[in-house]
Amino acid sequence: xxxxxxxxxxxxxxxxxxxxxxxxxxxxxxxxxxxxxxxxxxxxxxxxxxxxxxxxxxxxxxxxxxxxxxxxxxxxxxxxxxxxxxxxxxxxxxxxxxxxxxxxxxxxxxxxxxxxxxxxxxxxxxxxxxxxxxxxxxxxxxxxxxxxxxxxxxxxxxxxxxxxxxxxxxxxxxxxxxxxxxxxxxxxxxxxxxxxxxxxxxxxxxxxxxxxxxxxxxxxxxxxxxxxxxxxxxxxxxxxxxxxxxxxxxxxxxxxxxxxxxxxxxxxxxxxxxxxxxxxxxxxxxxxxxxxxxxxxxxxxxxxxxxxxxxxxxxxxxxxxxxxxxxxxxxxxxxxxxxxxxxxxxxxxxxxxxxxxxxxxxxxxxxxxxxxxxxxxxxxxxxxxxxxxxxxxxxxxxxxxxxxxxxxxxxxxxxxxxxxxxx
Length: 423
Ligand SMILES: [Mg+2]
Prior knowledge:
Oligomer: single chain
Subunit structure: Monomer.
Order of helices and strands: EEEHEEHHEHEEHHEHEHHHHEEHEEHEEH
Main location: cytoplasm
Binding site for Mg(2+): 38, 128
Strand order of the largest sheet: 1-10-9-3-8-7
Radius of gyration: 24 Å
Number of strands: 16
Number of helices: 14
Largest sheet: 6 strands, mixed
Shape: globular
Structural class: alpha+beta
Bound molecules: magnesium ion
Domain UmuC: 34-210
Helix content: 25-40%
Number of domains: 4
Strand content: 15-25%
Cofactor: Mg(2+)
């Protein structure tokens, strides 16, 4: 019915998604193709990533209140939010570290870039979790389970953080599944196995059941979702009220028609490549940048968009990062123009790369606008014009994205085998 790549069961938290976004894309469906991806103990994991002496230890992030606790601290009964004093009573040897908000924002941005590289249908719920709809990607990227495994591996490899993923046919079940798979797990609820998975769980796992409702239900002997489902909507009304009865009854029978809501059109596109810890020559690094530029240029043109700002992202051996950007005088979708800009940024960053060692290179194109057919792109004077891009795009469309590759990339593969998706 379902599988778990992870071990321990975690406690589910209840969140409500914010109101529906402006564009509903894909409805809930019988196949399990909605992913709920949720970073594990997010702030605490970032601290353990950046400060090796914290790994394997109980870590509390916060000041007066615990904002995040590592799994080592959670195993001792620490919860969030909880008073630090109370948490230290439960776990006296815990190490308390102050929050570093900008580090968390940066890590979140990097994880969301991987989400958007996985599928265009991403609904962010908070800084560390999102729904992803991967229906329709079977042909290009494989089954949802395969996609989820790759997503988890990429977040671990490229951002250095553990992330749990639940897969199901509805958002609610996907979220319950990710919570049940934690920490660092993957759990898929097959179509047909929903109730078998859901009914043994405590009622607190249902969205909308907080401590007050849980207590009201407990007084009536209802502690498991299966018991609540048996009671029926009519039976629930006197306990929780008419509206909540309808809502909880539907969830208990795994009915959740909400769609994965995507936001407005994207303001940027990006791609990155993890390089591992081996030292790379400047030529190799340039070659990877060529590859990234080719991919992004093609995505830009396929989406009929143009960009004005080119952003180079670098990550070093010690997980520190640097970002370099350049804004062009005019918007462009011309690969050669983007490449020259990116190479200029890379050259300027070479001393830093030499000093710290490069483990990841990323490129983002921002300040995106819809391409105006009347607007001329302005390539640099020397070098191939837009007709080369058009020709290469056509060849790649007909024969696959590896049909044409730059000489510098031969023998290196395409980098991460990420499908080219509509932007
Ligand atoms: Mg989380």
